[in-house]
Amino acid sequence: MTQPALELDGVSKVHPSPAGDVHALRDVDLALYPGELVAVMGPSGSGKSTLLNMAGGLDAPTSGDVRIGGTSIVGIGQKEMASLRRRSVGFVFQDLNLVPALTAVENASLPLELDGKGLRAARAAGLEALDAVGLADLADRYPEEMSGGQQQRVAIARSLVGERRVVLADEPTGALDSVTGEEVLMVLRQRCDAGAAVLLVTHDSRHASWADRIVNLRDGAVVGIVGDEPAPFAETAATRSHGATSVTAATTQGRA
């Protein structure tokens, strides 16, 4: 079996409160492999965003371990974590976090520039990422000159730029129409087929149907997983077919 691109091992997150501790995550075990798209579903407050924050090192677990490419990120320094995120982890946030003063291509290529890549090479990679989401012709526009859906695709391009091994997407199609949303999911699927691992938080069962596995969360705990861990990547990529996961089964198991 190929080494997991991302692992959560017994991860819990507890927020102390005078009224009683709030358990945002409860002993979560999850592994994502290269070439795999995993969808996370659950009601509001179930811990989906907390799980993404743990996976990307934006927050530290109360207990348990998080590993990216086999390397534990729990307890490492802020500079080392920032460098690891720029090189290995792409984020797609609900609020986009685009820089208003930068053009689309400058926003997309920003992680590479921050990591020391030359301006020309970074711009070329940014243009390639924008082309992948159908926005190459808007490369020199600023966020305020684009629609909400176009801004969302710029944010997705930024998460794909370079050689990110892990992409964490929090409702990446929330601001998009159904057609554009399907196109974005196809981009994420293609990124998986190229060897990345994608963790997708979604409320939409149609979008979850693109996933190889569906993880159901409730009250911070995994209450159901549909789909088996993959065979080695080469076999997985050769045999995968879109829509193989049953969302109905995922929902049923999540309620068990």
UniProtKB/TrEMBL annotation:
CDD domains: ABC_MJ0796_LolCDE_FtsE (cd03255). It comes from the Bacteria. Residues 6-244 form the ABC transporter domain. Keywords: ATP-binding, Nucleotide-binding, Transport. SUPFAM superfamilies: P-loop containing nucleoside triphosphate hydrolases (SSF52540). Coiled coil: none annotated. Residues 237-256 are annotated as: Disordered. It holds the Pfam family ABC_tran. Residues 238-256 have a biased composition (Polar residues). Gene3D superfamilies: P-loop containing nucleotide triphosphate hydrolases. One of its GO terms (cellular component) is plasma membrane. GO terms for molecular function: ATP binding; ATP hydrolysis activity; transmembrane transporter activity. This is Macrolide ABC transporter ATP-binding protein.
